[in-house]
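Hey, weird one. I pasted the Fructose-1,6-bisphosphatase class 1 sequence into the form twice and got a warning about non-standard characters only the second time. First submission, copied straight from the form history:
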Amino acid sequence: MRLLNQYLKHHNTPDDLIDLIDSLMLSCKEIAIKLREGALAGVLGTSEGINVQGETQKKLDIISNDILKAVLLDNPTVAGIASEEEDYPVPGNPDGKYLVTFDPLDGSSNIDVNVSVGTIFSILERPKHLDGGTEAAFMQSGRNQIASGYVLYGPCAVLVLTTGQGVNMFTLSHGGDFILTEENVKIPEHTQEFGINMSNQRFWEPEMKNYVSDLLQGEEGPLGKRYNMRWVASMVAEVHRILTRGGIFLYPWDNRDPSKPGKLRLMYEGNPMSYLIEQAGGLSTTCYGHIMDVQPEKIHQRVSVGLGSKAEVETMMQYHAKD
Ligand code: P6P
């Protein structure tokens, strides 16, 4: 049985990165406790707040964000943080080595109906010539990530982490330790399961309409096999399912707001999840190219997403190939 810190040390993870991951896990343990208490602690329901995304904030969105902000800004390795729930990056230690982006509670619309949610995080190095509190310091593609991961608060709390040496899963014990439970996770190359919000079908590009139509035709259609569908409305739960048994997750561009490239956010959803997916042998794309190749221009920039089992994502991309 190996503890998270033992595993990281054994795999030559730098001490300051282990220290930062410890701070992230301390925060996530506190968030897990708040979630477990739920109605008993009066933390369910919405706040009066509206975030920079224009979304009504759940009480637990704010509580989770405040926990992560306080713990991370108290860690001297952190030069700055950027959160889905913060309008702008927040400076930390000016000499700090790392930048952290996070979605404190992804899928929070599910909280009041007791469905899985999670904390997603991404770790970058601060460019030496830039201050960690500036948006410019964060404008790095996903290829620059030092580490990324999430803690899924489901029937059990599970940390899924990559530091660039594959993907590992650590389950939170009753005693408060993250214990290695899955090592070197690999996504099955093929799948018969897809995830997409079908209610948006009329807004999609023709390419996505054609692909999903062929999925729905099953064995009678050109793809020649029966597909099943899942939609949890919590990206962290969808990605965990894909890392565990394969699949394809889709949140494509749609014409409801043509100015937005997609719904999901690049810096603290798209990039961290893409690093995990590709470290586990899958593919993570905008439906046209790798998400981690996108050069960010804004901290809350959005992106369209098609990720999962390599062969299935490649098939989906053939529908989107420009002649
Ligand atoms: P919809 C949660 O709000 C989220 O950002 C992702 O976690 C999830 O996959 C998606 O939005 C769900 O979106 O439009 O189906 O509610």
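That's the output from the first submission. The warning seems to come from a hidden character in my clipboard, not from the data itself. The longest helix spans residues 15-37.
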